Amino acid sequence: MATTPEKFTFFYHAESPFSQFHYAKFTAAPINFHNAEEELEVQEFSSCEMWMMYNKAKLFKDEDIATKILNTEEPFKCKKLGRQVKKFDQAIWNMHSRTIVKEGNRHKFTQNPALLEKLRATKGTTLAEASPRDLLYGIGLSANNPRASDRNKWRGRNVLGQILTDLRDELDK
């Protein structure tokens, strides 16, 4: 018996509403990593990349970089600042990064109804970040690569695509 081939919604570049670099304003308090008693101040974010890098700085208690990130809306500058976070520990980051990305996208999509509709329109597909160079968050291939339509041939892990697919399914419940 033949199985139905898996369908994908490929995305890449800031123009895509599924990209971490897509401009979409939302407000949220950062994730409280250190003191559950402390109420953290709600901030405005211009992209999920800004959210991700801000929370990275807060996770490692780098207030200087966190402030710099809040003072730029350019996602690529936020990413560059995020690479400068002091006392960065890859093992700690690995424990928290998926939650950070998922919660940022939850805020982005639930506070921007037009974007939420675009996310819901992908139902029945797996979202896949067709970044040829990103082997963690992307599939490690471009969308027009013949291997992109077979997840077993992907070079990357598609962490962002899976987070978005799971989030879409949660929001549809």
From TrEMBL:
Residue ranges of coiled coil: none
Occurrences of domain NADAR (ranges)? 10-171
Matching Pfam families: NADAR
* InterPro entries per the UniProt record, alphabetical: NADAR, YbiA-like_sf
Protein name (Swiss-Prot/TrEMBL): Riboflavin biosynthesis protein PYRR, chloroplastic
Q: Which organism is it from?
A: Folsomia candida
* Phylogenetic placement of the source organism: Eukaryota, Metazoa, Ecdysozoa, Arthropoda, Hexapoda
